[in-house]
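Hey L., structure's done. Input below.
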Amino acid sequence: MATNAKVGLLVPGSFGGQPPKLNEFTSFFRRSEELGFHSLWVIDRVFHNVNILEPLTLLTCAAAVTSRIRLGTSVLLFVLRNPVMVAKTTATLDYLSGGRLTLGISLGGRDNEFGPMGVPIKRRVSRFEEGLAVMRKLWAEENVTFHGRHYHMDNVNVDPKPVQKPAIPIIMGGSADAVLKRSAEAGEGWVAGGAGTVDTFRQAWQKVQGYGQAAGKNPNALDSGKLMYISVGEDRAQCKAELETFTHAYYGPRYDVENNCAFGRPEECAAKIQGYIDAGAKTIILGPTWPDPQKITRIAREVVPLLK
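Output:
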């Protein structure tokens, strides 16, 4: 791929109607690797009024039929999960995939997801920070003992360890200033979701870099990601309508496809994507509306070569 940016794909994971079958995903995963895409990414929601597939299950299916393409979460609702089980599951996935996992995490989902999961929403920040410390210790150390506010354990092990050393890379999603600061100080980078302008992305990324530098890190070593839904075609109105049907089922009818998505002819899509690359995005995550090998073939052959 010609661009210096890493171009990955968001695996379609939310569906207003019946989700695709496993064989459709399998063909999508294999074709993604054949086409040279950098990575496959998955979203996460626990409760919704549409069908949403569990992200780590989906990534495991991808790992089983590929050998090179990286695998990532954008992003996992970390606070809604037990960090010991996240450590175990992700270490296993990294091991089985040969060290291909990037773990994107966030503070949690919508307000209605905390109560049924038994997680106090007012304690989500302390649970996030403590859970992150627990997970990293379990990845790296033997006979872990930990006693904090939320988690207690003595002489426990998670094996096998991740293949990647010193650990699985962690990036963080969100737009709040505290998230940007935490992604620089406690993570390896930041990823922006499917909304927001080029200017808001640039400003947020500059903040992340500033926080990284203040923390004694090399800001250029931090990763920056941007998710963008895409539909390539000659009929711009039809592409927009396809994206509206897909995104409105997940985000709701107020989601702004015109400003947030790339759609229409390849050069129009490339121009929209290029704006974020120029603003500092090192990893572009393009989201088609269905795991269709033909859709991503067109993206790879007609859109990506136009990126600089």
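The chain is about 40% helix and 20% strand. The chain has a mean pLDDT of 97.

-- N.
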